[in-house]
């Protein structure tokens, strides 16, 4: 499977996942390709994708944005360790929906347990990435980064 098809599958699955979770409250902006090998985060989750496509999915946002999302889902404000746990679970929700989308396209995917990154974190080692800003009405903005392992 070519790299462009892999990127497209993960991108379409990600768009579908966010639209399923947030319905009409999501605006997904145009993705951009980057050769930047560094990523800086404030609060985020990294999920590795394995199977027919191998790569990494990183969802980056602010504590305030993730807290608002968590409060809308659980009916209470999340902070501290509960917020960090929620960010990991949020990554599982999106990753799981990407796997479902992909299986409907006859692509076998699985996800690894989430790695939550707290504080200003810098990641490196990516060769090709797609960055996609996502605006969530009433919640704020998050950024998605897809890195495909070749």
Outline the structure in words.
With 150 residues, this protein is of the alpha+beta class. The protein has helices at residues 3-22, 63-74, 80-104; strands at 26-28, 32-34, 38-51, 55-61, 109-111, 115-124, 129-136, 140-148. Helix 1 (3-22) packs across helix 3 (80-104). The chain is globular and about 45 Å long.
Architecture blueprint of SSEs:
Elements: H1 3-22, E1 26-28, E2 32-34, E3 38-51, E4 55-61, H2 63-74, H3 80-104, E5 109-111, E6 115-124, E7 129-136, E8 140-148
Antiparallel strand pairs: 1-7, 2-7, 3-4, 3-5, 3-6, 4-8, 7-8
Helix pairs in contact: 1-3
Indicate how many domains the architecture comprises: 1
Biggest sheet record: 8 strands, antiparallel
Mean pLDDT: 87
Please give the number of β-strands: 8
**How large a portion of the residues is in β-strands, by DSSP E?**
35-45%
List keywords for this structure.
150 residues; alpha+beta; Chemotaxis protein chec; eight-stranded antiparallel beta sheet; 3 helices
Compact description:
The chain is an alpha+beta fold.
């Amino acid at each position: 499977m070519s790299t462009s098809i892999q990127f497209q599958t993960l991108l379409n699955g990600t768009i579908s996942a966010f639209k399923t979770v947030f319905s009409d409250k999501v605006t997904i902006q145009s993705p951009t390709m980057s050769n930047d090998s560094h990523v800086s985060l404030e609060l985020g989750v990294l999920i590795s994708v394995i199977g027919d496509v191998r790569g990494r999915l990183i969802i980056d946002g602010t504590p305030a944005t993730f807290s608002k999302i968590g409060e809308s889902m659980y009916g209470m404000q999340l902070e501290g360790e509960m917020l960090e746990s929620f960010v990991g679970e949020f990554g599982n929700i999106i990753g799981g929906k990407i796997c479902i989308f992909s299986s409907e396209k006859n692509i076998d995917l699985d996800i690894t347990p989430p790695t939550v990154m707290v504080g200003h974190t810098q990641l490196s080692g990516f060769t090709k990435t797609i960055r996609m800003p996502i605006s969530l009405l009433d919640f704020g903005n998050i950024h998605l980064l897809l890195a495909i392992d070749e």
